[in-house]
Design a protein that fits this description.
TetR_C_15; Tetracycline Repressor, domain 2; DNA-binding; HTH-type_TetR-like_transc_reg; 10 helices; TetR/AcrR family transcriptional regulator; about 0% strand; mainly alpha; Homeodomain-like_sf
């Protein structure tokens, strides 16, 4: 029953947005009475929070699996494969992503997202550490991992939601270039001048 209510909450959130969602609409979409709904969730916010939690958990699981599967590969291969998986995961439920990001930010307690960001940040730090010989000596691995995770997260979300006139291959190549800069020594000073 809980999954049924969460499914209905997702449908209503996508169709009507946060402001247009109500427990009555959600109960109707779940084909149950409002009284039955209240046995499982105290209010609309609890249902919407469960929708967000499930969605972010699913995206996090997919991306975490891609990161782990590609951790030992060269960054030139691992980075675009992982970001491509993130784009796919986010794009699979684009309208739900829009509702979560643009209509319900105040409800997202962020526990799932924060845990995911920390895990991916640790994996990014591990990837940098594994290639410490090629990483510039002045790179702070903790700071770099934090920035990389948030930059990729933000840019991929905006790419999916905004649909800019940038082909996916171009976006993937450019965001990969941005990430790979942390894995490469800068050109020698004489070459830069």
């Amino acid at each position: 029953m809980v999954a049924r209510i969460i499914d209905a909450g997702q449908q209503v959130l996508i169709a009507h947005g946060y402001d247009g969602a109500s427990t009555n609409r959600i109960a109707d979409a779940a084909d149950i009475s409002p009284g039955s709904l209240y046995q499982y969730f105290p209010n609309k916010d609890a249902i919407v929070a469960a929708v967000i939690e499930r969605y972010t958990g699913e995206v996090a699981d997919r991306v975490r699996a891609a990161v782990l599967a590609n951790l030992a590969r060269q960054p030139e291969i691992a980075v675009p494969v992982t970001i491509s998986e993130l784009l796919d995961a986010l794009g699979e439920h684009r309208e739900l992503l829009r509702a979560v990001v643009e209509q319900t930010p105040r409800l997202s307690t962020g526990a799932t997202v924060l845990a995911f960001e920390q895990q991916i940040g640790e994996l990014a730090r591990a990837a940098l550490s594994m290639r410490s010989r090629s990483v510039p000596a002045d790179v702070d691995f903790d700071a770099a991992a934090w920035m990389l995770v948030r930059a990729v997260e933000h840019l991929t979300i905006r790419y999916v939601l905004d649909g800019p006139p940038i082909p996916r291959d171009r976006f993937l190549a450019d965001i990969t270039r941005l990430v790979l800069n942390y894995f490469r020594q800068p050109p020698a000073r004489a070459e830069r001048e």
